[in-house]
Amino acid sequence: MNRLAATLYGYTFLNDFILLYPVYALLFVDTGLSTAEISSLFVIWSVTSLVLEVPSGVWADAVSRRLLLTLAPLLAAAGYALWIIAPSYWAFAAGFVLWGAAGALQSGAMEALVYTELDRLGAAGRYATIMGRGRALGTGATMVATAAAAPALAVGGYPMLGTASVLACLLCAAVATTFPEHRVESTESTESTESTEETPPGGYAAILREGVREMRSSRSVRRAVLLLAVVWAVWGSLEEYVALLAAATGVVAYAVPPLVLLVSAGVALGGVLAATGRRLTDRAFAGILAAGALALGAGAISGVPAGFAAIAVAFCLFEMATVLAGARLQDRITGPARATVTSLAGLGTDVAGILVYGGYAAASTVAGHDVIFAVFAVPYLVLALALTRGGGSRSGGERRRERRTSGSRGCGA
Known about the structure:
Blueprint: H1 2-16, H2 24-30, H3 35-62, H4 65-85, H5 89-106, H6 109-120, H7 127-176, E1 183-185, E2 197-199, H8 204-217, H9 219-238, H10 242-248, H11 256-273, H12 282-302, H13 308-332, H14 338-363, H15 369-375, H16 378-390, H17 396-406
């Protein structure tokens, strides 16, 4: 388990140690793009992920998940290089296609590989803790990159930031090759002395059918997929506009990265705290979402830099909720098409993300960033109310133990 955790932590750190992250929106603005054009790039990004999400998940169940995790950062590196070599709308669009493809390869494959390896070691209950810490380290890498972006930008401009980002991706790909992966071919005669996950039999279509079958047959899986998609999509999309929200407060350009850094610190803390909420009931989970919504709305509508403290709290709670929602989903998946089912959740996230980007673009013509952020806090209040009215009181861990005791495939939520 130590090797798995160490590799995951190194991978997530390098994957997010991208100096372009905190300023690429400013690069787009400096190139002459409008807010609507920037939003259209985010839509292109999401559509790419949307198209490739499920196919890449099925691929991860059919072949080596470690292979996909190795290829992903190489695609991202090509995209970042393109942004610096030929900065223009279409170059940015092509870069987002490559970045979206990289994200699709990682989505599903990462979660499935980590959960399967932990389950093999009898430590599936550690999933939320390890993934939460991994995501926290990834956010920490973003924070370090954010802190380094300002001086690097002053010394070498965008080319220096791009070069550093490409190098980080190459190192990330190298680390990915060290992921442990234990899987066996699924045949009736195959026997193993250790608990390894079976590779689904048949071709691409058979694996896809297996993943869809599990979604259709298990209400608890469907609920977990929907919960993860909604929780992650809104704040994950808004995160792309944090730098623009900071600039809208009237601070000077060099003060934008510190405000973005503050929000990133909140996200990192949320990943670390996720382990403490492993056994939260639905009502307690709803409380996290409601508190995050109120903090987001209050911080955004304040229109002052100090309001970013509340926004950081909101993003902390939303990240915590995202990790916990992901753990609930992994607990409920029982079939061999784990990456495929996880990618179906990613597909839902991409669809919701496109709606957020489109809504943000439309709203930007009539309202400022502060108002738009506050409006997007409302979906979390609605979701919190739905969870509360649902009357669910059992934790994900309790349901998982109940499912294993009964031998069912989890037909109730």
